[in-house]
């Protein structure tokens, strides 16, 4: 797999995760995730295939991923009160892509939040002129709604209060909802709603030594394995699985070192259930590559 391919995969994954964080109300986490995602965008995708049909289609798809991530990043910064920064970036965006109404809408919102209602309405007029001259069309519903809301000083445009960080937890209570954070093995009593999926994974392990759980970012893969599958196996859902030693690892920058404790001439004292979470880290920038030379040292997993 080429490095550029990995970058596009990471960009798409991080962009989806950042939008989910924004939708959940965590603008600060969304801003960090989306800014990191956009740092992966370097140059023109698939530049080595300038005339290939597949490359043209993929460039359009990735450009839309980038634009959507950038729009979400601007929303996060506006929500955090970083209006001046967002305004500068959005002014550049409307210059580069004047027909994308999202940029105009977000620019109006940032200006209004910054106390510049007149400039926000002037931006609406600019957008209307550009769309009329270039397309012979009026602004779409979202842009018209934003103009009307700014004109009416709609309270819905006011920023939502940032979540408080100093609210003490009630003694003896533990909220079962962890937001976007992954559930861990210790969270098994709180983990609900995936019983059928966990049963299916257990069933796969009856006949196969390896099971791969894949899916889009934020789907809950880590949670279902860590807080669902591992505790189920510890409870004996597969014959003898209650004796297995669960080892949950992530590759990190030195994946070979992570597995070192499981290798050697003497096998582990008990069968090992090896869970490799975030497997894509094997291709992350800066990670060491395992030797391609076959090894005579056995590894039990």
User: Which spans of ≥5 residues are poorly predicted at pLDDT below 50?
Assistant: 1-6, 164-172, 290-301
Give the helices and strands as they follow along the chain.
Answer: HHHHHHHHHEHE
> What share of the residues does DSSP label as strand, in percent?
under 5%
Note the gap between the termini: 26 Å
Give the class from helix and strand content and strand pairing.
mainly alpha
Task: Note the main sheet.
Answer: 2 strands, parallel
- Rg (C-alpha, Å): 25 Å
* Count of runs of 4 or more consecutive helical residues: 10
What's the total count of β strands? 2
Which geometry do the CA atoms define? elongated
Q: What average pLDDT do the residues reach? A: 76
Largest sheet: spatial strand order: 1-2
> What level of helicity do the residues show?
40-55%
Description:
There is one protein chain. With 301 residues, the protein is mostly helical. Helices cover 50% and strands 3% of the residues. The chain has helices at residues 3-23, 27-38, 53-79, 83-96, 101-113, 117-135, 141-151, 195-207, 221-234, 255-259, and strands at residues 245-249, 272-276. A two-stranded parallel sheet has the order 1-2. Strand 1 (245-249), helix 10 (255-259) and strand 2 form a beta-alpha-beta unit. The longest helix has 27 residues, at 53-79. It is elongated. Mean pLDDT is 76; it is low at 1-6, 164-172 and 290-301.
Features:
elongated; disordered C terminus; 301 residues; 3% strand; mainly alpha
Summarize the structure.
This protein is mainly alpha-helical. Helix content is 50%, strand content 3%.
